[in-house]
Amino acid sequence: MSELARLCPICHQQNACAMALGQDIGRCWCADSSYNAVELIKQYVTTYPDNAIRSDQCVCVSCLSQIAQNTALEPCAVQFYTP
Questions:
Q1: Beta-bridge mates of residue 14
Q2: DSSP code of 52?
Q3: Confidence band (pLDDT; 50, 70, 90) for 12?
Q4: Potential cystine with 15: which of 40, 42, 60, 72 (Cβ 3.0-4.6 Å)?
Q5: Are 59 and 7 spatial neighbours (Cβ–Cβ below 8 Å)?
Q6: Alpha-carbon Rg of the chain, whole angstroms?
Q7: Could you report the per-residue pLDDT of 21-59, keeping only the tens digit for each?
Q8: Alpha carbon distance 45, 9 (integer Å)
Q9: 37-47 and 61-73 are packed helices; what angle lies between their axes, rounded to 10 degrees?
Q10: Which is it for the CA torsion 31, 6, 11, 57, positive or negative?
């Protein structure tokens, strides 16, 4: 993999991705994460379309945590009225 694959596309620090280091995905930190990394990254890309993330790049644990916090804090787009 390229050197870019080892860097988080958001903060540009090392992402500690096992696959970028030539290891099995099961050894990666994201496999043990309480976050659904794929869904959070999809939401991030939808929210920030100008911040492209290449298919061979992974975000770091710190950025994924920040995305999860921001996603949880965003208000729901649909509001339900309860009389």
A1: 7
A2: -
A3: very high
A4: 60
A5: no
A6: 15
A7: 889 988 888 888 888 888 888 888 888 888 878 888 889
A8: 11
A9: 70
A10: negative
